[in-house]
Specification:
7-stranded mixed beta sheet, alpha/beta, globular
């Protein structure tokens, strides 16, 4: 699609009649819309339905965009893959003031939030449709200090003479067959091949990666890693951020941040390695760290911080006789313990309904639930896990409402 075609498409979708239709059919079934709508040459129904579907995806993830007038959306997939507003706002607090270059601009969510902290933001995106859509939306959102360029971000960076305070990039994590990449060198652009260029243009670089990538490997491959931020929302790990500062030689600080509960836990790898963990069979309470802590690998540090005992070196569940407060994760009171047996469990929970989790335990939750003849749900929480005595067990618990 040429630039003129892209601009024409955005112009058509911005027409009052079409925008009114998109908003009026926010909750409509796309299939039914196609069946009921009459074909009109001046009404691009397929594009309009894509707008409705993409806007629906943005409702909870991008509320500012969803509630703003005359916003244009890319494909549903692009909306699914973009940063959420809550993570974009978090990233904006990490950058330097001055000029920021977002060299993988995309839909522009991060750039918009960067513009609230930086004096000036360059949004560089090689996909012409995404670039034009982002520029259009920035105008609707009155983000006047963002300037958009449709080009390869690395090319733009190579040619610019601007004094950039922060370079931000979010390498694409899928190949042409839509397969997820699991190492940094397979992402596009390949950051490792261009670190020297990045550091000739700025001393401060912020990189976003997917949780799938191994943190230790990324730290070892990158240069001058100052901080690693592991971000979770609703106890689901969403992204990992690497702050690189030219000349930094100290060990990086790792921050596990569960955003909606505002729970943060910071540690270093050397601290983690030095800790001698205490182990125990299940006591009165069970502690499950939030997803950010588990991804960050603070398996010993979290036990040490809160005076907990680990149930097994590879299980990553913790226990104590007396309850501890302000734990960054879920806390349960252990009601019963039994072997992994349908009859034994049914004696304890006759209604055969509970919420299941597995830790250091073979098989899946679905397989376990089927094997035990249970349904998922209710007030009981069952952890199938391996204990320090190397035996597997079911820990039947009730949640303690201590989370923030």
């Amino acid at each position: 699609m040429t630039e003129s075609d892209t601009i024409e498409k955005i112009t058509i979708l911005s027409q009052p009649e079409i925008q009114k239709y998109i908003w009026a059919n926010a909750d409509a079934d796309p299939t039914q819309l196609k069946l009921k709508s009459k074909k009109r040459e001046d009404f691009p129904l397929d594009d309009v339905i894509t707008q409705i579907q993409s806007r629906a995806k943005a409702k909870s993830k991008l509320p500012t965009w969803y509630h703003s007038k005359n916003i244009i959306y890319p494909s549903v997939v692009s909306v699914e893959q973009t940063s959420s507003e809550i993570t974009a706002a978090y990233k904006a607090n990490l950058i330097k003031e001055g000029i920021l270059a977002d060299i993988t601009g995309g839909f522009g969510i991060d750039s918009y939030y960067f513009s609230k902290k930086a004096d000036l933001v360059y949004h560089i995106e090689k996909n012409s449709l995404l670039s034009e859509i982002a520029e259009h939306n920035f105008e609707q959102l009155n983000a006047e200090n963002i300037f958009c360029y449709t080009t390869n971000g690395l090319w733009w960076l190579r040619d610019t003479s601007e004094k950039i305070s922060t370079i931000y990039l979010d390498p694409s994590r899928r190949d042409k067959q839509n397969k997820k990449m699991v190492v940094l060198s397979d992402c596009e652009p390949n950051v490792l091949d261009h670190l020297d260029l990045l550091f000739t243009k700025s001393a401060f670089i912020l990189i976003k990666t997917a949780p799938l990538l191994d943190i230790n490997k990324c730290i070892s491959e990158l240069k001058y890693v100052k901080e690693v931020h592991v971000i979770a929302i609703k106890n689901e790990c969403k992204e990992v951020l690497y702050i690189l500062e030219k000349g930094w030689i100290a060990e990086p600080l790792i921050i596990a941040q569960n955003l909606e509960s505002d729970q943060a836990f910071a540690f270093t790898r050397s601290e983690e390695q030095k800790i001698n963990t205490e182990f125990s069979l299940p006591l009165s309470y069970l502690y499950e760290p939030n997803a950010a802590i588990l991804k960050a690998g603070a398996f010993k540090a979290i036990a040490n911080k809160f005076g907990l005992k680990k149930m097994h070196s590879n299980t990553h569940l913790y226990t104590s006789k007396e309850i501890v407060s302000n734990f960054p994760g879920r806390v349960f009171q252990i009601q019963h313990q039994c072997k992994v047996d349908a009859k034994a469990l049914s004696t304890i929970i006759p209604k055969k309904k509970a919420n299941f989790s597995i830790r250091n335990f073979s098989g899946s939750v679905t397989e376990l639930v089927k094997k035990l003849g249970f349904k998922e749900g209710g007030n009981y929480y069952i952890f199938a896990c391996t204990l320090i005595n190397q035996k597997t067990a079911l820990l039947i618990c009730e949640k303690v409402k201590t989370e923030k």
